[in-house]
Amino acid sequence: MTRTTRALLGATALTAMGFAAAAQDTTITIATVNNGDMIRMQGLTDVFEAENPGITVEWVTLEENVLRQNVTTDIATGGGQYDIITIGTYEVPIWGERGWLQSLNDLGDDYNIDDLLPAIRGGLTVDGNLYASPFYGESSMVMYRTDLMEAAGLDMPDAPTWEFIREAAIAMTDRDNDIYGVCLRGKPGWGENMAFLTAMSNSFGARWFDENWTPQFDSEAWATTLNFYLDLLNQAGPPGAANNGFNENLALFQTGHCGMWIDATVAASFVTNPDDSQVADSVGFALAPDNGLGPRGNWLWAWSLAIPSSSDAPDAARAFISWATGPGYVGLVAENEGWANVPPGTRTSLYENQDYLDAAPFAQMTLDSINSADPTNPTVDPVPYTGVQFVAIPEFAGLATEIGQVFSAALAGQTTAEDALAQAQDLATEEMEAAGY
Q1: In this structure, are strands 301-306 and 133-138 parallel, antiparallel, or unpaired?
Q2: Per-residue pLDDT for 126 more than 80?
Q3: Is residue 266 located within the same domain as residue 319?
Q4: 280 and 395 share one domain
Q5: Which residues contact 174 (CB under 8 A, 6 or more apart)?
Q6: What is the pLDDT of residues 288-307, one digit of tens each?
Q7: pLDDT at 25
Q8: What residues contact 189, with CB distance under 8 A and at least 6 apart?
């Protein structure tokens, strides 16, 4: 077993009719995350099956951390359980380079690969091969209650600082009425609290490793980051914040319990949808905060569909991916759900579509957020890695999951920030030495 495989398994301790012609009477199994856009895709399965006779789709829909665990185990061992997997920008270059994914360079003329946003396409490409097709792309931004901000006597800047976020969060908090100034990810996981904290730390001048791969959790910048995060949530966050990830905070915001929520731009269509959100008519948007040091506290990500090399139905899988991530799917969702609810952040054409721009007040802020993230220069000081909210090495997923548990414990009051950072430094040092960095 290679070091890469061991590292990835460590983390698990955690309409192209031409394609269909070659895939008659085929069942494909798709593993996906239980986010709203994926649930909507699953609900449109009948449309795909009607357009592609002979292909049947079966779904395995899982919570984010569980999805990562199952998919990583399956692909690292060549299990062949899935024909299509939903993976992120972190996994694609690592898995593609190792031959664990099939190239998707040819998804048909209708797919229009050159329409993909360069920042998103670049993160899913290795040596000229597109190894995953983006279903939706995202950065992160501030979503806030305009009514509560007004009541607090404050105006949200388009580009706020962290100090403004602290001031506004405290001013908007009304614990007697279960209103909390800010909701942030606290649930442990490399794609949960550590995605948020890593992106946040960039804006405080912190980094995971220096240029010699020496861990930096004993730095003043990390101490400032973690203490600010803990103090902010303790002063103005909801009870039980250490258990809250994307979906939990989405529910809190939609039911009126959060003054601000700093999270994925893809959430904008859900918090502004009056069918789902009680505060849909009073939501504003701003760039993720900064400290005037250069980087903002936002990330860059795409949930994408890929075909494992172990799939025995690659033609049928390509047919589905071409359908679900091509321009035609956007029109299908717009027809059924409205333009504001189409998957965002993947195609240039979407941000040139006036129907979408008119329906989605968050469109320009989403695009600006995506374009402001720089995976090749994510931090203030030089680093030997790429990635904004992750470090693009195989060991990161397992290591960040362990550190995420330590930081979540600090948020829950089970340890201090100082001790949590000391544990993080020890964990990172041990892992990097064992991996031979």
Answers
A1: antiparallel
A2: yes
A3: no
A4: yes
A5: none
A6: 999 999 999 999 999 999 99
A7: 87
A8: 14, 64, 65, 68, 195, 245, 401, 404
